[in-house]
Design brief:
alpha/beta, Rossmann fold, five-stranded parallel beta sheet, 19% strand, AAA_14, DUF4143, ATPase, P-loop_NTPase
Length: 423
């Protein structure tokens, strides 16, 4: 084992970096060599976590870093591998302070106890990465409480997407900008897919999806009823609003013996692997909020356009999905932000309510509208009703290309094109 680890480390030092395209999030901004804080880089599979580690090593110095991927089939899932790793590093570099970049470390049982010991007793800094919320601040093991800082890597945002495409918006005609925005919501922001030829994109996404289902859910949680999970995913990908009871009843009608408790467990697993996130009803009544229907948003719009019969051609729904993604990124940088949807008993509905410290900061409606006449009157009425109930005057309608400031019943409604709002 020591010989294999030595080979992996020396290969890392000797081989050149792959092409690393810059991202908005820089690990160097969170890293302080004077402070022994473990950085946890988390996010869905294939969002660019590994390349974020490479980008850090490129800036910090490759010889001062060691990268290990614990999904390497040559490495057994045994904590002894971690102990041997420290022995090998000491033999190669002595007591020289290094940064250990450890990818998918949660695959090793007992990793958290080892990480705490290394952080407290060695000169090495740890940057951990994984596609499981076991590394997130919400679910970090007890022994690491207070010792970690979680950094979430999402699919490319709009700015990153246009940079990957080599576009300068100031020099690009509006029709081409809109065409690029359509590509963004159709094919999403998973980096490898963004850079791939169009004919390869569906093949890559299918591979990602199958690997996620098998490795991140079925194998990780030792799931026996894999078919029930796969049918649940089909349901979620084809509906935005759900209740646990309705999902359980639908699965029972399909021949699965999955009760409500099972569905709740499955949905928790899907959230813990960052595949989806849940948005709840905006209500001061906690019981009503828990019992009300929830909305599911998927990590990347391409999963919706590729695997959904409902959303594949519905650009308004894909826009809504992308807007949620941007709000989630803002929420990561400001943990005090909360995102809800709003609905009253007359079925007036608003897509997003953004709160900070229990105060409503903005109400957002999303619509695939090219001009004012295409904005449904019901959507504007819902926005105004929500504004009155929630006592908020910051009202936004995100459109496809219509831009205006309108006064309606004493309120100013800011209509802004999708691609501009994302900036």
């Amino acid at each position: 084992m020591k010989r294999l680890l030595e080979e992996i480390i020396k290969t890392w030092w000797s081989e050149p970096f792959p092409l690393v395209k810059p991202r908005t999030i820089k690990l160097s901004e969170f890293f302080d060599p004077k402070i022994k804080k473990i950085l946890s880089v988390i996010g869905f599979r294939r969002t660019g976590k590994t390349f974020t580690l490479f980008d850090f090593a490129k800036g910090y110095g490759k010889q001062q870093c060691i990268y290990i991927n614990f999904e390497d089939e040559r490495l057994p899932a045994d904590v002894q591998v971690l102990s041997r790793l420290i022995e090998v590093i000491k033999e190669l570099k002595g007591s020289q302070p290094l940064v250990l970049l450890l990818d998918e470390i949660q695959e090793i049982p007992g990793w958290s106890v080892w990480a705490r010991r290394v952080n407290e007793t060695t000169p090495y800094h740890l940057i951990l990465s994984g596609s499981s919320s076991k590394l997130s601040s919400k679910e970090i093991p007890t022994e690491l409480r207070g010792q970690t800082l979680s950094i979430q890597i999402s699919p490319l945002n709009w700015r990153e997407f246009i940079q990957f495409k080599g576009l300068n918006l100031q020099e690009t005609a509006i029709p081409q900008v809109l065409n690029t925005a359509r590509e963004y919501i159709t094919f999403g922001g998973l980096p490898e897919i963004v850079l791939a030829e169009e004919g390869i994109k569906p093949l890559l996404l299918t591979e990602y999806y199958n690997t996620f289902v098998l490795r991140d859910v079925i194998e990780r949680y030792h799931l026996r009823n894999a078919e029930a999970l796969k049918d649940l995913l089909r349901l979620i990908l084809n509906t935005r609003t759900y209740t646990y009871t309705k999902l359980a009843n639908t699965l029972k009608s399909l021949g699965h013996g999955a009760g409500k408790a099972t569905i709740i467990r499955y949905m928790h697993w899907l959230e813990s692997t960052f595949f989806l996130s849940t948005v709840e009803l905006c209500s001061p009544n906690v019981k009503r909020r828990i019992q009300a229907a929830k909305k599911a948003y998927i990590i990347d719009t391409y999963f919706c356009s590729r695997f959904s019969n409902v959303f594949s051609q519905n650009l308004g729904s894909l826009m809504e999905q992308a807007v949620w993604g941007e709000l989630e990124r803002k929420r990561f940088h400001d943990p005090l932000l909360e995102i809800f949807y709003w609905k009253d008993y007359l079925q007036h509905e608003v897509d997003f309510v953004v709160m900070r410290n229990q105060i409503v900061k903005e109400i957002i409606q999303v619509t695939y509208a090219h001009n004012l006449s295409e904005i449904a009157e019901r959507e504007l009425n819902s926005l105004l009703k929500a504004a009155k109930e929630l006592k908020c005057s910051n009202l936004t309608v995100i459109t496809w290309e219509f831009e205006s400031k309108m006064e309606m019943k004493g309120h100013i409604v800011n209509c802004i094109p999708f691609w501009k709002w994302l900036l």
